[in-house]
């Protein structure tokens, strides 16, 4: 696969503080790549180096074949950026902002007009194209800057926390648009601390903590990597005595929450057989029995805790 982004030992220091520490990864053409981390982990700083906003202290970043520090203009002509905070001019209308962005990319007026109509329709703002942006909600502003970032038909899109603080409707629309863009061939680099968002969207995720990359893989592989213990949730038709780990093979611990038992097991097959046998011994039926996979949130927490040790 064609390599669209390559970071080699990217490092950034502010004074004596190293905020990005020898980060390396690559993103292939057609991927949605999630860059995850808590606030202050180094996500935005890394993105700013990749997009040529900040110089690195050491290491290199290659975007669409160009060294972003040596050939920023060539690279920037081929990617779009959606920052976390709206950079639209609030005293201008949506249409005026789109035209300004098109002129910055030196697009012909006819193309700017066509793309403005297409994109404002796409993001649901065409009916309010002549309204000043200062009257827009945060979700509307975010949709506008997404449209602005797409006016020059980029091959690659960088997004920094694109749904942070948005209402449900705007979040759903932006995520849906990103899926459609990706289906049409666009590569997407997404920074977020929203694990569920990353789990829904991304082909692969990289997790950064305190400036260092601590994990890089597909979401399901990251979840399975921490799945050393399994969880089973079971409910019985009537109350049963306390389930003790020593009583049933394969069970590490068990805790009742509401009308269900949350059971941590080392061997799913052995534990399920034990639970079925136990229900017979107690002369009761199993109402529900579910094996629960770890979430990306749990993987993130486990991985960052292990890194701290």
Automatic annotation (TrEMBL):
| Membrane-topology annotation of the record | Peripheral membrane protein
- Top-rank taxon, per record: Archaea
The entry assigns this protein to a family as follows:
Belongs to the ABC transporter superfamily. Drug exporter-1 (DrugE1) (TC 3.A.1.105) family.
Single GO MF descriptor: ATP hydrolysis activity
Q: Which organism is it from?
A: Methanospirillum purgamenti
Give the PROSITE patterns listed for this entry: ABC_TRANSPORTER_1 (PS00211), ABC_TRANSPORTER_2 (PS50893)
**GO biological process terms held by the UniProt record:** daunorubicin transport; doxorubicin transport
Report domain ABC transporter positions.
5-235
Sorted UniProt keywords: ATP-binding, Nucleotide-binding, Transport
Location relative to the cell: Cell membrane
Protein name per Swiss-Prot or TrEMBL = ATP-binding cassette domain-containing protein
A Pfam family recorded for this sequence: ABC_tran
* Gene Ontology cellular-component annotations: plasma membrane
